[in-house]
Amino acid sequence: MTDALVPRADDFDEISALLTLAFHGDVDPELREVERAVFEPERALLVRDGGTAVAHAAAFTRELAVPGASVPAAHVTMVSVAPTHRRRGLLTGLMRRQLREIHDAGREPLAVLWASEGRIYPRFGYGLAAQRLVLAGDTAGLRLPDPTPAEGTLRLDRPAPHRAELARLYERVRADRPGWSRRDERWWDYVLADVKGLRGGATERRVLLHEGPDGLDGYALYRTKEDWAGTGPRAEVQVGEVVAAAPEAYLALWRLLLSIDLTRRVSFPIAAVDEPLFRLVDEPRQLGARLADALWVRVVDAPAALAARRYATDVDVVVEVTDDLLPENSGRWRLVGGPSGAECTATSAPAGLACDVRALGELYLGGAGLPALVAAGRVRELVPGTAAATAPALGWHRAPAPMEVF
């Protein structure tokens, strides 16, 4: 067995086959080409045994919206180990090396990922930074407020002709929603790719556009899936994403999505935990919401990461951090900041709070409450009152939310 090597671009087919095996999928040539287009071989690590690919990890080069800023973040992905090579330390070796390389490159103070299983990544310092609501509910009889005079017009089309305006609106809204990743041209290709093998019997993807007084101010990507019961139609509306820059656009989009003829169900697997829809429908329980994990954040460079985001209120606190995998993060850091900027420097002053790097990742996007982590023993309050004084600054006016699985 060889040590992990940086693969070549033409190793992708073999890597794709390994991922298909590990995640129990079928080979889909169309999907493989879509994924090949965003693959960055120079950011991947591949382990072979006798010439056969047996373990792999990679990262995408993207930016992540964080409270008040957009920060370069390694989007960790494509992590897999062949069933024949489990329990040999291959995953541990890959994750440790990847973190070290991200840190030493000095370009990305964060790493972020989706976890196939929540128990895997905390041991590498990843903390659950953003949760999501999975909606799978009934729409029959569900009511929304009546239209307002300020609502604009709705149009329905295929997404491709509107790609440029969708991208502009997405980037505009992304600035105010921690957890959304920046999309360059390659990533818009990926997001809008409509692989037939992944539709599960549903229609092609459609886009619903809302035009306000100043042009496009909302859109929704969705499909429908036909279904009939003995009592009549039971089709489902499968919502992929809803992006709105104005409340009127958001309301108009959802009013149509929840009332399409012959449909009786809706699904939306990446709703935000503060999704406005729950404040609009007359019976929220009918949405069938279930809480799930979403983005896991690993702070790779503690002072750089803490200085990169903004804070809801003024803050001046010393935090003692421990990091077994990246000892450069261990120590006492003084964070001074507020809504307009922040700085974080090493200090010998007494710490008011103490935590490991995993807890720092959980707090980073503003979604995890500091008092809850203190109550769980995950953050220690060394000076009484420090947590209560610091908690408002670490939060944000929008909950962190995912927008896509990468």
From TrEMBL:
Keywords: Acyltransferase, Transferase
Positions contributing to acetyl-CoA binding: 79-81, 87-92, 116-117
Gene Ontology process terms (BP): aminoglycoside antibiotic catabolic process
Domain N-acetyltransferase: 1-161
Keyword Transferase part of the UniProt annotation: yes
Gene3D superfamilies tied to this protein: 3.40.630.30, SCP2 sterol-binding domain
Molecular function as annotated in GO: aminoglycoside N-acetyltransferase activity
Domain of life: Bacteria
InterPro entries per record: Acetyltransf_17 (IPR041380), Acetyltransferase_Eis (IPR051554), Acyl_CoA_acyltransferase (IPR016181), Eis_dom (IPR025559), GNAT_dom (IPR000182), NAcTrfase_Eis (IPR022902), SCP2_sterol-bd_dom_sf (IPR036527)
Active site: 121, 406
CDD domains noted in UniProt: NAT_SF
Family the entry assigns: Belongs to the acetyltransferase Eis family.
Subunit structure: Homohexamer; trimer of dimers.
PANTHER family in the cross-refs: N-ACETYLTRANSFERASE EIS (PTHR37817:SF1)
NCBIfam families: PRK01346.1-4
Protein name: Predicted acetyltransferase
